[in-house]
Amino acid sequence: MTSSVLHLWQGEWIDDAEAGRRLAGLSESAGRILARPLPTEVVLGACAAVADDLADPASDLYGRVAGHLPGGEAASVLAELAAALTRQALERKLRRELGGLRPERLTRPDARETVFEAWAPVGLLVHIAPSNAAAVAPLSVVEGLLAGNLNVLKTGSADTALAGEVLAALGAADATGLIAERVVVLRFASSRRDWLETLCGQADAIAVWGGEDAVRAVGELAPPGCRVVEWGHRISFAYLTPGAAADDTLLDALAEDVCRLEQQACSSPQVVYLDTEDREELFAFAGRFAERLSKVSDARPAPRPGTAEQAEITTVQQLARLEQHLGLTRVFAAEDGSWRVLADTRPALDASPLHRSVRVKPLPRTAVTSTLRPMRRYLQTAAVAGGRADVAELSRALFAAGVTRVTPVGSMLDGYDGEPHDGVYALQRYSRRVGVRAPGSGFGDVACLDDLVAPPVLPPAPDAPLLGKEGVQRALATLDARHAQLYFRSGGSTGAPALSVFTCDDYDNQMRAAAHGLLAAGFSPAHDRAANLFYCGGMYGSFISFFSILERLGATQIPMAAGPDHTVVAEALVTHRVDTVFGMPSYLWQLFHAEADRLRAYGGVRKVFYGGEHFSAEQRRVLHEEFGVETIRSAAYGSTDLGPLGYQCTACEGSVHHVLTDLHTLEILDPLQDRPVAPGEPGRLVFTSRARSGQRLERYEIGDLGRAVQGPCACGSHVPRLELLGRYGDVVRVGTYFVNYRRILQAAQERLAYHGEVQLLIAPGTDREELTVRLDEQYAGDAGAAREALTAEVPELTSAVAEGLLALSVETVPRDSFERTATSGKLRTVIDLR
Hints:
The protein is an alpha/beta fold. The chain has 4 domains: 9-232, Aldehyde Dehydrogenase, Chain A, domain 1, CATH 3.40.605; 235-407, Aldehyde Dehydrogenase, Chain A, domain 2 (3-Layer(aba) Sandwich); 456-726, ANL, N-terminal domain (Rossmann fold), CATH 3.40.50.12780; 735-832, GMP Synthetase, Chain A, domain 3 (2-Layer Sandwich), CATH 3.30.300. It contains 28 helices and 36 strands. A 7-stranded mixed sheet has the order 2-1-6-5-4-7-8, sandwiched between helices. A 7-stranded mixed sheet has the order 11-12-13-10-9-14-15, sandwiched between helices. A hairpin with a 2-residue loop joins strand 1 (5-9) and strand 2. Helix 3 packs antiparallel against helix 5, helix 7 packs parallel to helix 8 and helix 12 (248-259) packs across helix 13 (279-299). The radius of gyration is 34 Å and the shape is elongated. The termini are far apart.
């Protein structure tokens, strides 16, 4: 980049002449660019990649950016940028400020109403950055990107290209190009009036960092209706109770706050207030604090102030020395001029000349609000030191005066992810809240309006090796304890129960996504009365998850859980007028048959939402015809380790589901090779979970087979669909042949009109392997006829039996004889005893 190339324009470095030509067309390009939504997921992914580079001194980006900073500042500034751009920090910011990780999507804040709301960009957002805080400029633009805006950053002509380098890297890290087209960085002096007027005249919002003069000048240039977001200069102070003032350790911490950044930050202490009216007590404290400041300052050599700054310091200090003769002040200062403490008996708030200059004043707590309120426009941070009751009482008084932050002494300059700035959330100031009120008759099963418009924009799957269940379990041993807040175990239907760990935020995000899927499936929170009959206990998550999902929908629910006493459950369904049940097909099938007379007489169960297994076609027919059930649909497709993966809409049939793209990216790989299958071909399902803070599951081979469903869905949604084709375990090698459990189930249904459950038992035998097919005696006829039908319909069985490699038998047993997993209640479809 040559000295004549000063500006970054939508991913391209350009010179002054080209920037001048493009400047007037910003407003026109804004309309075109803003018509394409910018998913927050795209911004989070790019920021995470840049954060990794900024945290790595060996990276090219680190070297380029560090070259724009003084040697002593590079490490700390880059560490600050890297920390602020991590996915964890930005996700927390999104949750706090905009309520979730996908604030740009038009979803239903109250699932009982067909009102859709979202946070929309304010439009063309101009950022006028300060010159004294290197990290502010790029981070302000990142906030604008999270809100979806087209961002133009104006930096000073003397500023370095640091912000441009960081933002160019951000655009390069985004394969979609959506970030690059939303970022312009212009470096020019504010005295260049024609550019400034052209830029501000097209803005929908202007974020300005600076003093009153800068804010006033921008306000004059802003067009009518333009939102001016003022990040002006602020004053901060410490307030100490007498007991706290006696603590030398606390005074050392306060001195550290003074010396950090030479009081250049808005949150740096300029004044120390003492809860007293006694002048001698004030002066004695000022002397003691001067000793502590001297010690800390000696350990932190101070840079020399500029000529103008030094002149102001000298003037203020000399005036205070003159007022000593009046008994109003007392001055404590370093001989080398590196620091000064100015004790003043007048409590009114005065700004400090900075550069380790601290005013010490008396202010009894009874006068806090009345004394400070005249300066409310300028107040920001107050560090309060005292007991718990003191902090509580003084915080309220300080807030009434205009303070926006209360912190402990020693951490005034520290913050937390998602913290409000100057009393407001930046992302809300850079956004608009928009809503659509739709008729309930046509939108009851629409969870998000955006899904009716275009397919979601998703990042590509990561370049990483495939991950299996064993790898996931091994990784848990090194998981950071901060990310291990919720523990769940799988039901163990496909092997030993596996452990999965979530953060509370991850869990909440997943439950909200699954709740949206349940709306699409036809569940109506405003009208349906639901009984949660999933299994509970033993760290198994089904019951808990659906309790959470229904809770987030604001639905009426009867949280019964699956229990062995079917009579009690059926009585509760009738007593509480339940019309919708949630549970495992195995359990629901048992319930309907064990309490058939009662439930037929009630006739009130209209909807069945299931998970974990599937109802066969014959089972569906029985529920429809004999029990009056109108809707039978998957409540969710998911797993314990990944969480919810897909959902059915009202147009999905069989095992077809939409993919929960808010949470996951799906790949379908060839059954034998690690390459994508052709569109519509079956393969192994591999998921990358993009919404997990701790337990990262990238390219996780879940053990299911499926295929992508081509073409648009009849429901109108553009969200991708897949058809589940069973699990790897459904195909077992027996008698040297591969036998598919689902093929045997289908043969029983089609040849025998059988609509019960089917279970396979495989044993080694003495001279050949043995396969026993268990059928429910209530629906099975003659076992011999069933055996003949199966061998006639399933070629692999025919061949294995004919070649003497397999002994095949069929047995009819009572329903309660089928083996099930203890935790989830799922039917064990294949029991291999070899």
